[in-house]
Amino acid sequence: MNIQPLTPGSTGPFSTTPSGGSSSSPILIVFLVILGLGTVTFGVLTVNFSNQASTAQKTLTQQKAVAAAAARDDQKKIDDINYTKVNESPFRAYTAPEEFGSFIVNFPKNWSSYAKEQSSGTQVSLALNPDFVRNTNGQDNTTAVRVMLITSTQEQYLNQYTATIKSGATKKTSITVSGQPAYDITGKFNGRKTIREVVVPIRDKVLVFSNESPQYASEFNSVLSQAKIIP
Q1: What is the mean pLDDT of the chain?
Q2: Contact 223, 128 (CB under 8 A)
Q3: Which of 82, 130, 201, 229 is least enclosed by beta carbons within 10 angstroms?
Q4: pTM for this one?
């Protein structure tokens, strides 16, 4: 039997040289490095975006708070101005409902007032008086100023004064109230406490201002001059 000596680098049965190469190891290492870098980068970006979102939310919340505070301050200033005006003004106002023309009557703020509103006939009846507005046995006592919105045309309403105007018991003159043509009637009014009446035609209705007390003639003029009528 011939026994051949082993030479270095041979691949005999007792060789210690591995049969497979190690060329795949560097690729795995590179892959793991790239994966690690990607994970770190993603984590950094996530934290960064989260911080940016948190900062944006805080900024928005702060802006809303500042805007709300500014709005409250502006409203307070407006309320303070209105409060001052109300307390400086010696008058307060009655505003008729929209369906009755939204006319406005200003009168002394320390006067008593009573308003009755209904859909037909005398749609608005406003009584104004320095003292109580009294009603005795179903009849209103004398009032300084009475304002009535009546569903009657100008001609229909003024016809009742034709005879007294002809006789001289009453006198009718033309005036202007809130920029609207009106009629000022003075004299004796049969069966009534009225001493002066101002009639303002408004479309198919009339707005009537009455004075029943001569001692408040000046206040009556003031109420009349401050009335605001929408034609």
Answers
A1: 84
A2: yes
A3: 82
A4: 0.62
pLDDT exceeds 70 at position 17: no
d(CA 106, CA 92) in angstroms, rounded, equals: 6
Which residues fall within 8 angstroms of residue 196, CB to CB, at 6 or more apart?
Answer: 184, 185, 186, 210, 211, 217, 220
Residue with tokens 């009546």: 150
156-192: per-residue pLDDT in tens? Answer: 999 999 999 999 999 999 999 999 999 999 999 987 8
Q: Which DSSP state fits 155? A: H
Whole-number Å distance between alpha carbons of 97 and 102: 5
DSSP structure string for 13-33: TT--S-SS--TTHHHHHHHHH
Rounded distance between C-alpha atoms, residue 9 and residue 188, angstroms: 147
Mean predicted confidence (pLDDT) in 49-64: 82
Which pair of structure tokens corresponds to residue 229? 């009528």
